Protein backbone atom coordinates (compact mmCIF):
# COMPACT_ATOMS: atom_id res chain seq x y z
CA UNK A 1 0.00 0.00 0.00
CA UNK A 2 1.45 3.43 -0.91
CA UNK A 3 1.80 6.25 1.60
CA UNK A 4 -1.00 8.08 -0.22
CA UNK A 5 -3.53 5.51 1.01
CA UNK A 6 -1.85 4.27 4.20
CA UNK A 7 -3.34 4.79 7.64
CA UNK A 8 -0.82 5.98 10.20
CA UNK A 9 -0.85 4.88 13.84
CA UNK A 10 0.72 8.08 15.19
CA UNK A 11 1.45 11.72 14.42
CA UNK A 12 4.55 13.74 15.20
CA UNK A 13 3.78 16.65 17.52
CA UNK A 14 6.16 19.54 16.90
CA UNK A 15 5.48 21.26 20.23
CA UNK A 16 6.86 21.17 23.76
CA UNK A 17 3.52 22.29 25.22
CA UNK A 18 2.22 19.88 27.87
CA UNK A 19 -1.28 21.28 27.23
CA UNK A 20 -1.16 20.19 23.60
CA UNK A 21 0.08 16.77 24.63
CA UNK A 22 -2.78 16.50 27.12
CA UNK A 23 -5.35 17.50 24.51
CA UNK A 24 -4.06 14.98 21.95
CA UNK A 25 -4.25 12.30 24.61
CA UNK A 26 -7.84 13.39 25.27
CA UNK A 27 -8.61 12.69 21.59
CA UNK A 28 -7.01 9.27 21.85
CA UNK A 29 -4.27 10.21 19.38
CA UNK A 30 -0.90 8.49 19.69
CA UNK A 31 1.94 10.96 19.13
CA UNK A 32 5.70 11.26 19.25
CA UNK A 33 7.50 14.55 19.90
CA UNK A 34 9.45 16.19 17.10
CA UNK A 35 11.18 19.06 18.88
CA UNK A 36 13.68 21.64 17.59
CA UNK A 37 17.33 20.62 17.69
CA UNK A 38 19.70 22.64 19.91
CA UNK A 39 21.17 24.31 16.82
CA UNK A 40 17.79 25.54 15.58
CA UNK A 41 16.76 29.13 16.25
CA UNK A 42 13.17 28.31 17.13
CA UNK A 43 12.49 31.69 18.76
CA UNK A 44 13.19 33.59 15.54
CA UNK A 45 10.16 31.92 13.96
CA UNK A 46 7.93 33.74 16.45
CA UNK A 47 9.35 37.22 15.82
CA UNK A 48 6.70 39.73 14.73
CA UNK A 49 6.94 41.57 11.44
CA UNK A 50 6.37 45.36 11.47
CA UNK A 51 2.68 46.18 11.23
CA UNK A 52 1.65 42.53 11.14
CA UNK A 53 -1.94 41.77 12.15
CA UNK A 54 -2.42 39.12 14.83
CA UNK A 55 -4.45 36.83 12.54
CA UNK A 56 -1.75 36.97 9.87
CA UNK A 57 0.98 36.53 12.46
CA UNK A 58 -0.38 33.35 14.02
CA UNK A 59 -0.98 31.72 10.64
CA UNK A 60 2.47 32.67 9.34
CA UNK A 61 4.21 31.33 12.43
CA UNK A 62 2.25 28.07 12.28
CA UNK A 63 3.24 27.53 8.64
CA UNK A 64 6.88 28.38 9.39
CA UNK A 65 6.89 25.88 12.26
CA UNK A 66 5.39 23.24 9.98
CA UNK A 67 8.08 23.69 7.35
CA UNK A 68 10.84 23.63 9.97
CA UNK A 69 9.41 20.45 11.51
CA UNK A 70 9.28 18.70 8.14
CA UNK A 71 12.92 19.62 7.47
CA UNK A 72 13.79 18.29 10.93
CA UNK A 73 12.09 14.97 10.22
CA UNK A 74 13.81 14.50 6.87
CA UNK A 75 17.24 15.56 8.15
CA UNK A 76 16.94 13.22 11.11
CA UNK A 77 16.09 10.20 8.97
CA UNK A 78 13.05 9.47 11.12
CA UNK A 79 10.17 7.20 10.21
CA UNK A 80 7.78 9.04 7.91
CA UNK A 81 4.47 10.12 9.45
CA UNK A 82 2.29 13.25 9.41
CA UNK A 83 3.34 16.21 11.57
CA UNK A 84 1.04 18.36 13.70
CA UNK A 85 1.95 21.96 14.53
CA UNK A 86 0.11 24.79 16.27
CA UNK A 87 0.64 28.34 17.44
CA UNK A 88 -1.33 30.45 19.88
CA UNK A 89 -1.38 34.17 20.49
CA UNK A 90 -3.46 36.69 22.40
CA UNK A 91 -4.50 40.02 20.89
CA UNK A 92 -6.07 43.16 22.28
CA UNK A 93 -6.24 46.65 20.74
CA UNK A 94 -4.60 45.20 17.60
CA UNK A 95 -1.52 44.34 19.68
CA UNK A 96 0.00 40.87 19.91
CA UNK A 97 0.64 39.65 23.45
CA UNK A 98 3.19 36.88 23.33
CA UNK A 99 4.91 35.08 26.18
CA UNK A 100 6.02 37.33 29.05
CA UNK A 101 9.74 37.59 29.67
CA UNK A 102 9.32 37.76 33.45
CA UNK A 103 6.77 38.32 36.23
CA UNK A 104 6.74 42.10 35.76
CA UNK A 105 6.00 41.69 32.06
CA UNK A 106 3.23 39.25 32.96
CA UNK A 107 1.64 41.81 35.31
CA UNK A 108 1.75 44.42 32.54
CA UNK A 109 -0.05 42.08 30.13
CA UNK A 110 -2.62 40.95 32.67
CA UNK A 111 -3.35 44.54 33.70
CA UNK A 112 -4.07 45.30 30.07
CA UNK A 113 -6.53 42.38 29.88
CA UNK A 114 -8.30 43.03 33.19
CA UNK A 115 -11.91 44.18 32.86
CA UNK A 116 -11.92 43.76 29.07
CA UNK A 117 -12.50 41.35 26.19
CA UNK A 118 -9.61 40.00 24.14
CA UNK A 119 -9.11 37.39 21.42
CA UNK A 120 -7.18 34.14 21.61
CA UNK A 121 -6.05 32.89 18.21
CA UNK A 122 -4.76 29.37 17.66
CA UNK A 123 -3.64 28.16 14.25
CA UNK A 124 -3.16 24.45 13.62
CA UNK A 125 -1.72 22.64 10.62
CA UNK A 126 -0.68 19.16 9.52
CA UNK A 127 2.10 18.23 7.11
CA UNK A 128 1.30 14.96 5.35
CA UNK A 129 3.82 12.24 4.51
CA UNK A 130 4.44 13.72 1.07
CA UNK A 131 5.56 16.92 2.79
CA UNK A 132 2.44 18.81 1.70
CA UNK A 133 0.90 21.30 4.11
CA UNK A 134 -2.82 20.63 4.57
CA UNK A 135 -4.88 23.83 4.68
CA UNK A 136 -4.17 25.35 8.11
CA UNK A 137 -7.14 26.09 10.36
CA UNK A 138 -7.62 29.09 12.63
CA UNK A 139 -9.61 29.03 15.86
CA UNK A 140 -10.74 32.43 17.15
CA UNK A 141 -12.15 32.77 20.66
CA UNK A 142 -13.15 35.79 22.74
CA UNK A 143 -12.36 35.87 26.43
CA UNK A 144 -13.59 38.41 28.97
CA UNK A 145 -11.52 39.07 32.06
CA UNK A 146 -13.13 40.45 35.18
CA UNK A 147 -11.88 43.72 36.65
CA UNK A 148 -9.19 42.06 38.75
CA UNK A 149 -7.32 44.01 41.42
CA UNK A 150 -3.62 44.55 40.86
CA UNK A 151 -2.52 42.62 43.96
CA UNK A 152 -4.32 39.50 42.69
CA UNK A 153 -2.58 39.85 39.32
CA UNK A 154 0.79 40.22 41.04
CA UNK A 155 0.19 37.10 43.12
CA UNK A 156 -0.73 35.16 40.01
CA UNK A 157 2.34 36.41 38.15
CA UNK A 158 4.55 35.48 41.09
CA UNK A 159 3.25 31.89 40.92
CA UNK A 160 5.22 31.40 37.71
CA UNK A 161 2.21 30.04 35.84
CA UNK A 162 2.07 32.90 33.28
CA UNK A 163 5.59 32.25 32.01
CA UNK A 164 5.68 30.43 28.69
CA UNK A 165 2.04 31.26 27.94
CA UNK A 166 0.75 33.70 25.34
CA UNK A 167 -0.99 36.61 27.02
CA UNK A 168 0.52 35.60 30.38
CA UNK A 169 -2.19 33.19 31.47
CA UNK A 170 -3.45 29.64 31.14
CA UNK A 171 -7.20 29.12 30.95
CA UNK A 172 -6.85 25.67 32.52
CA UNK A 173 -4.92 26.98 35.54
CA UNK A 174 -5.34 29.50 38.33
CA UNK A 175 -6.24 32.28 35.90
CA UNK A 176 -9.67 30.65 35.52
CA UNK A 177 -10.79 32.74 38.51
CA UNK A 178 -10.31 35.91 36.41
CA UNK A 179 -12.31 34.70 33.40
CA UNK A 180 -15.88 35.96 33.30
CA UNK A 181 -16.95 34.65 29.90
CA UNK A 182 -15.68 32.61 26.96
CA UNK A 183 -17.09 32.66 23.44
CA UNK A 184 -15.35 30.05 21.30
CA UNK A 185 -13.19 26.99 21.79
CA UNK A 186 -11.92 26.15 25.27
CA UNK A 187 -9.38 23.71 23.82
CA UNK A 188 -8.35 26.38 21.31
CA UNK A 189 -7.64 28.77 24.16
CA UNK A 190 -5.58 26.03 25.81
CA UNK A 191 -3.52 25.80 22.64
CA UNK A 192 -5.01 23.11 20.39
CA UNK A 193 -8.59 23.42 19.06
CA UNK A 194 -9.77 19.82 19.07
CA UNK A 195 -12.54 20.14 16.46
CA UNK A 196 -10.19 21.57 13.83
CA UNK A 197 -7.34 19.29 14.90
CA UNK A 198 -9.42 16.13 14.58
CA UNK A 199 -10.53 17.10 11.08
CA UNK A 200 -6.93 17.71 9.97
CA UNK A 201 -5.71 14.44 11.50
CA UNK A 202 -8.42 12.47 9.73
CA UNK A 203 -7.53 14.18 6.46
CA UNK A 204 -3.92 13.05 7.04
CA UNK A 205 -5.19 9.48 7.70
CA UNK A 206 -4.17 9.28 11.35
CA UNK A 207 -5.79 6.31 13.06
CA UNK A 208 -7.56 7.33 16.29
UniProtKB/TrEMBL annotation:
Record keywords, A-Z: Cytoplasm, Hydrolase, Nucleotide metabolism
From what superkingdom does this record's organism come? Bacteria
Kindly name one Pfam family recorded for this protein.
Answer: Maf
SUPFAM superfamilies, alphabetically?
A: ITPase-like
Positions of the catalytic residues: 87 (proton acceptor)
Its localization reads: Cytoplasm
Q: What is the predominant subcellular site recorded for this chain? A: cytoplasm
- Marked site, Important for substrate specificity, at 19, 88, 172
InterPro entries referenced in this protein's UniProt entry, alphabetically:
ITPase-like_fam (IPR029001), Maf-like (IPR003697)
Q: Which cofactor does it need?
A: a divalent metal cation
Any idea of its EC number? 3.6.1.9
Q: What does this protein do?
A: Nucleoside triphosphate pyrophosphatase that hydrolyzes dTTP and UTP. May have a dual role in cell division arrest and in preventing the incorporation of modified nucleotides into cellular nucleic acids.
Which family does the similarity line name? Belongs to the Maf family. YhdE subfamily.
Report what the protein is called. dTTP/UTP pyrophosphatase
Source organism (scientific name):
Paraburkholderia terrae
Amino acid sequence: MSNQFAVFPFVYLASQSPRRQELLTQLGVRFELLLPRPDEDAESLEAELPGERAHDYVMRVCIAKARAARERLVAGGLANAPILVADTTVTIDDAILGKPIDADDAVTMLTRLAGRDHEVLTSVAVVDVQGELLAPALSVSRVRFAAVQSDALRRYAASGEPLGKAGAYGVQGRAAEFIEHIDGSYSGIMGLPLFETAALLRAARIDF
